[in-house]
Structure prediction request, 690 residues.
Amino acid sequence: MSARPEKKSHSESYTDTRLLFALDEFLISLETRGFSPRSVSTRRWFLKEFIAYAARKNITDARAVTADFLRGYITHLKEAETPRGKAGYSASAIGGFSVSVRVFFRFLSKRGLLLFDPARDLPETKRKAVPSNVLSAMEAERVFSLPDVSHAQGIRDRAILELLYSTALRRSELASLRTTDVRMDSGTVFVRQGKGGKDRIIPLGERAMRWLKKYLAEARAQFLPQPAGPDQREPLFFSNRKIPLSPQTVTKVGAKYVRQAGIDKGSCHIFRHTCATEMLSNGADIIHIQEILGHADVQTSGLYTHISPERLREKYNRTHPAAFGLIKETKKRAVTHPSVGRHFHAERKNSRRRVLTVRTDLDASILAYLEYRKPELSAQSVRTFAGYLWRFADFCFRNAVDSPGKITTQFLEKYQKHLAQRKKRPVRRISTGEVISVKTQKQEMEALCTCVRWCFSRGLILHDPSGGIVLPRIGTSLVAGILSRAEVEHVIGLPDTRYPYGLRDRAILELLYASGVREGELLNLRLTDTDYERDSLRVTAEKHGQDRVIPIGARAMKWLYRYVHEVRHHFVRDLDPGFLFLSNRGRRITSVYSHCRKYLDLAGIKKDQAVHIFRHSCAAHMIENGADLRTVQDFLGHRSMSSTRIYAHLSIGKLKEVHANTHPAEKRFLDRMRKTEDELEKSEKAEGGP
Prediction:
């Protein structure tokens, strides 16, 4: 980074648009607005990293920063090396960078230092992640039993752990507690100026209160400095060096015993997550959880509803066939196949990927557009958009259209007609002769029109030709590819579990049907995502950036446990990558399509889908057994109810019941059918009938 210019006075630097001076003014404004020192420090770190990146690109003035540069910076963060040596920042860290940059440039534009705000349209990148580090009841008790309470330090540490778990305090809030803040008579803890400058009173559990009393009576005096003044006696906890406990020391205490308990990650905040999770699981209202945790917005507390799947588990156990044992384990297999259950090491040939070459100005514009969209799209979405747009680029190249300015409405309509006649890709090198679906045509045209509008906004096209394009209408499609329960039983029972590959494939099929996860979500599962004590699974979001925790039937968990503890080590080659399902080369499996297709073919099932069909079957069988659409929406991880409505026709039995009980004509007819002849005669006389 370039050398920092000489510091000016406050009045002079207020109009300075150089990034370093603007940063000083921004941080001063945060302090005057009452932001905590921790928040100011976090914003300073995020923005210094951004300024260092800008300096490497020879940008030192805020007026030289453009919207495209900021989007490129967010894309850079996804691949940059973190201070800990990892490749790419996490989604939450990228969200912190994005928010800091957005607020920083909004501050400059409001002060009149910039003509426009380049970060105004910076996409929101923060993902709603579900905390993965939640202790089970047994794990929590194991952690609490580790401190040696025969010594003063062990008593102090046990009191800290019990207090963190009972009150869900943040580490800074616990470190700032005073002896007068713990009120034994009322069983409460008074939190002074917690996060956001909010005071609150939290109930204290009986067991935590007992250990606090023991600490105050037997251990605290040994940590007090000698001689101890009145100010030094005020903090509740002291470190071994006889100074008030710092938040960093609280983290070290929590991490020490969590690691000793054999838990890979988590320190003091893991007790906060666990407290909220267990309370919600036991019926606490989300408003009360918000009050205890000290969240300003109930939506922040709402993330714990995804890791408290008790309501979802209750309906899952009542409606999913795999949960109440309708699918029996197949003992004999009448169908055999040379590859089923064999331990083979045949390497799959890598498919040849197309090398993208820039031939024309239009190709360069498409590449620039894809770079522009990278910060807000997943890698899979970028690849999908690239496929759509490069097919259009090939069409343009064959028709001598080499720049965005030559794209007209008539040319887009010509391409739309071309899409309506394009054949589907061959399946196993056999062409079906069918054209692509109307849904695919609409998706490709929507992606193309979005790219054309972006070119128009950049001045590459004089007028927007996409305004005259009429996209095809798509009706509401019902789910057709659903396996019956007998078909599911047949398919799941085919893998030969005497061999490692068969046991792995059985676990994959069981998990697909029991959880309804998408293929990408299954491939990204890690060993730490399974909770055998709660029979649940933590699913990292593949779409829409929202993680979830879902219950899993005991049957599927049994096969998953067998795979992990009996045969998974056979697939590990050098270093364990940590993913749940591994290929024969010891890496993460990149696709389970061939695994599922193989067993569907052996079962004689010729339906189109191979992996997603288990997701559809899972939802269909739950709805057939009485699950409501809202429950299925939570279970499948749909952001909108409109995505779940495709299964609505499967609950026709419930719909018929509602129709019979509420429709006037049907209700009158059924009422007459239920009455005896004497009751009918009396009612007809009352109504004035014959």
